[in-house]
Request: fold
Amino acid sequence: MVKAWYMDSDTNDQRLEHHRNPPQFIGLQDLYAITGVEYFNINVETYTTDGVLEKIKKDRGYTYEDEITCSKDSLPNYEEKIKSFYEEHLHTDEEIRLVLDGSGYFDVRDGDDQWIRIAVSAGDMIVIPSGIYHRFTLDTNNFIHAKRFFIGEPVWLPYNRPADDMPARQDYLHKLKEGFVAA
Ligand SMILES: [Fe+2]
Reply:
């Protein structure tokens, strides 16, 4: 089950939990309200037949999907690669991931530019809105297997911060100001 918390500012290993002292957790509804990040719980044992994922895909127009694995064995230059995932960036489209096995952290900025760490593991599906600054890291398990989804032809291009003038960023800031409304 997904958990989210505000991060400390320690710059040691990105794969550690980076809790504040004392820990400061955020519930899923609050996470949505303050960042627009959406969450779905998927049963990884039954998702191919239970219809839950199919309905989400249909409702949201996800027409493309593939699977990725990140691990020391599957990624050449693993240490460099995970540092590149950890560069703060945004996209012009949603970033949608369903974790099938393993685990990792998606970090997103809140409206006050504080980092929120979202711990994902099997069954967690998250939708990171376009225009939000974020980054990803493996955790100390160094393994994740996930599905990626996209509306139409996939574009995985990251725009590293600063990207404040991009329309996707401006749209996101507008939604943040107006308040996120459940889809
Ligand atoms: Fe991203």
Q: What stands out?
A: The first helix runs from residue 28 to 35. The pocket of fe (ii) ion is lined by residues 89, 91, 95, 134, 158 (CB under 6 Å).
